[in-house]
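Re: the request from the purification team.
They wanted to know what the chain is likely to look like in 3D before they choose a buffer screen. I agreed to run a prediction and write the result into the notebook, where they can find it.
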Amino acid sequence: MSTTAQLTSEKTPVHEGWRWLPIIIGLLAICIPSFFHLMQTTWQTEENGHGPIILMVVCWLILKKRHAVLNTPNKPSAIIGWVSLVLSLLAFIVGRSQSIDTIEVAALIPMLIGILLLMRGWEAVRAMWFPLVFMFFLIPLPGLLVEIITGSLKQHVSGIAEEILYAAGYPIARIGVMLSIGQYKLLVADACSGLNSMFSLSALGLIYLYLMKYRSWLHNGIMLLAILPIAFAANVIRVMALVLITYYFGDEAGQGFAHMAAGMLLFVAALMLLMAFDVMLRLVFFRERGTS
């Protein structure tokens, strides 16, 4: 009896995997045309260029959690599952037919929740919680919201960059988002607002905390709250670097390779600031444990 039971338990995950095959095929049939469309349109823009990377991370996270889902108790929640699935499919159809990328991509999250509820139940949703949360980074921001945020960020970034460089003795002035240094004038464009870096670093920070598996909710909360200020600070560093490169080496240097390299500088600076802040927090929490 024990041998038979063992063989049955070993075969169960395989059997469960075959049950998911039609679901996977259906999801691929729905998602591939949408992602191909996004690849040719929305993900070509600077604001949403992170889309393919986020998609790959989401797929990796889902694959990583598949065994946890298969090992959950089989307790489907039919009513909520069907409601979530049907409403999300309707929203997906509306978004796809009307070319509203925000609705089209956002509908995939409740769609997956509905499938998990129908196939396994709430335990499966809990097992897949992090990939589902991370999928929010896939959703393209509405154009009007992007314009509002970038307009405000550009004002603050250019203002802080001007104040720091002026305090350092550089001949710099600002009109709106136009910086003048020496004989050069630089416009702080939408790409330099910092919105993209905030979005990308938020995703990176969330993955970082997920992999580090800190047990302290306070530590995780402080790290999450620090992500946006760190991304903003890194973007100010990027703008100042471009201003100084233009001032010392001319407009061609500032708009050429250095402009692209400044994007890498932004990413490296933000990552280093984030890790340094994490080290500082760990030292603080370690000392608190040691003195308690």
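For the purification team: Residues 1-11 have pLDDT under 50 and may be disordered.
Please add any questions underneath this entry.
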